[in-house]
Amino acid sequence: MSARLDRIGLWSFAGTGERLARAVTIASVLFGRGLLWLLAVIIVGCGIWMLLPLSKGNGAEAARPELAAVESAPSGDASAVVSSASEAPAPATAELSRLRISSQTWRRGGLGSKALVTLTLRNDNDYAVKDVEIVCAFTRRDGSHLTNRSRVLADAVSMKSRKTFARIPVGFVNVNADQARCSLVAARRA
Prior knowledge:
Number of helices: 4
Keywords: Membrane, Transmembrane, Transmembrane helix
Protein name: DUF3426 domain-containing protein
Organism: Bradyrhizobium diversitatis
Order of helices and strands: HHHHEEEEEE
Largest sheet: 3 strands, antiparallel
CATH topology of the largest domain: Immunoglobulin-like
Transmembrane segments: 35-54
């Protein structure tokens, strides 16, 4: 009973296991090299990210201009820089008692990670104001504090008027944030 294996072509499968093993070895080497390149890119990217300066409002402590001037001055001129920084004319600040937030709401944006605040500023002063700085405090549903985010509104608000700022991005917020309360920090005369 001779099956004539040469007609079926079973002999053509001889050596297939060796070719398959060689292909798997080549694929694993290429995959390993790809992983090494990916790891190198991640390490370099993280190193560059750590060297970038913090953006305003995301730092742990606000920088004071007097300290920056003292740190950048030569060692012998530090007292001269401090005295000149303290004698510099302060910008004309607005009276905050006559500037208030009459209404405010917030919602999530950016796939739920950013806070978008809509608020109406009322200016009862006899002059226009600009560069209004607000701070928004975010809390959980139970009222416990989560984070603060600040923002400077560059648009001017005319005297004895009100202006609505719609969907102003104030920064990233915690996923557990449920409530926001914004307040005025500073403003300048326009």
